[in-house]
Amino acid sequence: MVDTTVFVLHYSDNKMNPAVMKNIDGVWKRKKVSNLALNECLLRCVQSIKRNTKYPHKLVVVDNGSPEIGHEDAVNLLKEHGLTPEFLWVREDWHPVAVGANRAMDALETDYMAFLTSDMKPGKDWLSHMIEPLKTPQWHMTACEPNITQYGVGDPKKYRTPDFWAWLKRTADNKAAQRYFAVNGVGVEMDEWDEPVPHCRRFMKEGNQRISIFTTSRDFIDKVGRYDETYLRACEYQYFFQALKKGIENPTSEASYTYLSHFGGLFRCGVGAYHPDDWKHHPTVPMNAKGKPLIEGQDRQEYRYPRGAGNVFAKKDKYIFMGLGNNTFRVMERKNGNIKFEGPLKEALKYWDTTK
């Protein structure tokens, strides 16, 4: 029996998505596309898991509250492509991400589990980088960082909704992903869909740079508990501090900085949702009234999308929580590196909770 279950959190319905745009006579205009196109994201997610995951695993799609038409379409689409993962269909009136994540934890049968969302594609050997550290006494949970590659950079005609994929392809034309790879030293290769596949590697540095993709053991879940379902979004960032408050000092691993990809442009997920173009409106360098950098030649945006306002952890965007070893933790300002607090875990968490 395999020792790891990969849970893919998914949702789709037949409502129209008004955000998608279409090129009409050289002008990009809004075009409504059914959210059933999200099932095609699931298709690429599952295909990528099959291609890039050498580590033995069980794959379960957690269909988190889809109506019947969306669920049946997802099942049939995967079957058409020869893919038949197990499904866990969550049918509740209140179904934020936390609910689906908790139902997945309730259904866990293996020693370890990994979460990712259905609009992500894992890179090469991602799972082994996350599971292997968990088999040592030091680590209980490992976390992932997404890169900023996109779906839809291949041939849109391969999908049932080519307009949707053409729109996603448009978001990739700025070469941002390639620049990100170069800046961060990420190896990458192209698959048969002409989409980038990053080479996963192991590294983790800051205590609060966490997203909703993580791997953990059954024993750790039993100690930490489930997500608070009053939050719309379940994220590993929430789980990280939940673990620390239960007295588990090493919930993430320096041995697991894993690159994944999300469908939307320059995108930071897990503790806030952004449109692929939103990065243009939230620059990390000073801008003038015309939206140009105040310093000539300065780039307008770093390529790790910062968490923004409007999510439950937004107030922490200005600070970094990091462990220094020997039960010493630090809270520091992200912008200038000023140390606000340094001391034992209990006191550091108390200070962190009071930051604004």
Explain this structure to me?
The structure is a single chain. The chain has 356 residues and is an alpha/beta fold. The strands form five sheets. It has an eight-stranded mixed β-sheet with strand order 7-6-1-8-13-10-14-9. It has a three-stranded antiparallel β-sheet with strand order 15-16-17, with helices on one face. The chain has helices spanning 38-52, 68-80, 97-106, 126-131, 162-171, 176-184, 218-224, 236-245, 345-354, and strands at 4-10, 16-17, 21-24, 27-30, 33-34, 58-64, 86-90, 112-117, 120-122, 141-147, 188-190, 196-198, 214-217, 257-262, 319-325, 328-333, 339-343. Strand 15 (319-325) and strand 16 (328-333) form a beta hairpin. It has a single domain (4-275), classed as Spore Coat Polysaccharide Biosynthesis Protein SpsA, Chain A. It is built from nine helices and 17 strands. Helix 1 packs across helix 2.
Keywords:
single chain, 356 residues, alpha/beta, Spore Coat Polysaccharide Biosynthesis Protein SpsA, Chain A, 8-stranded mixed sheet, 3-stranded antiparallel sheet
Layout of strands and helices, then pairs:
Elements (H helix, E strand, L loop, with lengths): L3 E7 L5 E2 L3 E4 L2 E4 L2 E2 L3 H15 L5 E7 L3 H13 L5 E5 L6 H10 L5 E6 L2 E3 L3 H6 L9 E7 L14 H10 L4 H9 L3 E3 L5 E3 L15 E4 H7 L11 H10 L11 E6 L56 E7 L2 E6 L5 E5 L1 H10 L2
Parallel strand pairs: 1-6, 1-8, 6-7, 10-14
Antiparallel strand pairs: 2-5, 3-4, 8-13, 9-14, 10-13, 11-12, 15-16, 16-17
Helix pairs in contact: 1-2
